[in-house]
Amino acid sequence: MTWTVAPEPYDSPVSAALWREYYTEVSDRWYLLHEGRRTDPDELEREVAAQPGADLAPPHGRLLVARYCGEPAGTAGVRLRDGSAAELTRVFLRRPLRGRGGAALLVRAAEDAARALGATRMILDTRGDLVEARALYDRLGYTETEPHNDDPYAEHWFSKTLA
């Protein structure tokens, strides 16, 4: 079984489907933890539409799609933040494909994309309940840092120097 990772337009049908799946999962997880309910479908549609991913388009960003045996499996996005930093975002793998090395492959491909954009440092944020994400970033050499944004859902911020 083989993994591939390649750039994909942020607005392709594949990218849009993976974004909706990713957003549904993290939103449901937050609402179930904090309010005992799933995401309201109307809210989901508003948020997905409000964040289409245009900032992940060239020349200042990239959206990468991982495929497992040719089937769309997950995403990772990179966007330049300043002259030297790129932000890692939308790291997601479909649930049945987790634990097979795809997440690390996506993050490493995103690091390569950030270097190609001229970045020397990768930054990211995540939530406390996304323990798997925090473990992945730690395993890949990211260091927890002070906040670099004021996102109301961000609880942990990470950075890594890109060699």
Describe this structure in words.
31% of the residues are buried. Strands 1-2-3-4-5-7-6 form a seven-stranded mixed β-sheet, with helices on both faces. Helix 1 (13-35) packs across helix 2 (41-50). The chain has helices at 13-35, 41-50, 102-116, 131-139, and strands at 3-7, 61-68, 71-80, 85-93, 121-126, 143-145, 156-161. The longest helix is centred in the first third of the chain and has 23 residues, at 13-35. The chain contains four helices and seven strands; from the N terminus they run E-H-H-E-E-E-H-E-H-E-E. The two termini are 30 Å apart. Helix content is 35%, strand content 29%. It has one domain: Aminopeptidase (3-Layer(aba) Sandwich). The radius of gyration is 15 Å and the shape is globular. With 163 residues, it is an alpha+beta fold. The model has no long low-confidence stretch (mean pLDDT 94).
Please give the structural blueprint.
Blueprint: E1 3-7, H1 13-35, H2 41-50, E2 61-68, E3 71-80, E4 85-93, H3 102-116, E5 121-126, H4 131-139, E6 143-145, E7 156-161
Parallel strand pairs: 4-5
Antiparallel strand pairs: 1-2, 2-3, 3-4, 5-7, 6-7
Helix pairs in contact: 1-2
Pfam family, one: Acetyltransf_1
Protein name: N-acetyltransferase
Keywords: Acyltransferase, Transferase
